[in-house]
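User: What would this chain look like folded?
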Amino acid sequence: MTESKAKPNKAKGTSRASKPRKSATKARSTPKAGLKARSTPKAGTKAKPGARTAKPVRLLSGGNPQIAKADGDAPVQAYIAAMPGWKSDIGRWLDALIVRNVPNVRKAVKWNTPLYGIEGQGWFLGFHVFTHYVKVTFFYGTSLRPLPPGPSKDKNTRYLDIREGDELDEAQVASWVKQAAALPGWVP
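Assistant: Here's the prediction, encoded as structure tokens.
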């Protein structure tokens, strides 16, 4: 075995081994990318160790929740939870009805709108919050029978506007959902 000896530093007469090395990069004072900063709990409450507080969802014009564009069930559920008042009940009802009738449904939030589709086929339905109603969009609604009641400027699209207190025909909406899911979907 051979021992390695530290080379002397000619300028100061000390060995390199005894001198701490300076890093080529500056020490960071901010959290690493991808890590969220922890927020402090409200006065009088105790935060669980490692818990992060959720940022309140901003409501846009008409009470439409502003949810970041993302795929999956979680952003859709965040949108539904942020829908104001009675509209949140409509969102939960629609989501449950769609999942019940289209078991392999794909979900996402894009353009502050929950979208429902089939993998590889595109989106067949979306809904959006307005001041006095929730607008359900059937992207190829003109192919559904009977036609959903709301016309559109787009030749393929039909709407169903749900207002507070409306009596909903669950069987009819379920039929439209099944029919829409069987069609080729809208691909943006």
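The beta strands are 70-71, 106-110, 113-118, 122-129, 133-138, 158-163. If you want, I can go into more detail on any region.
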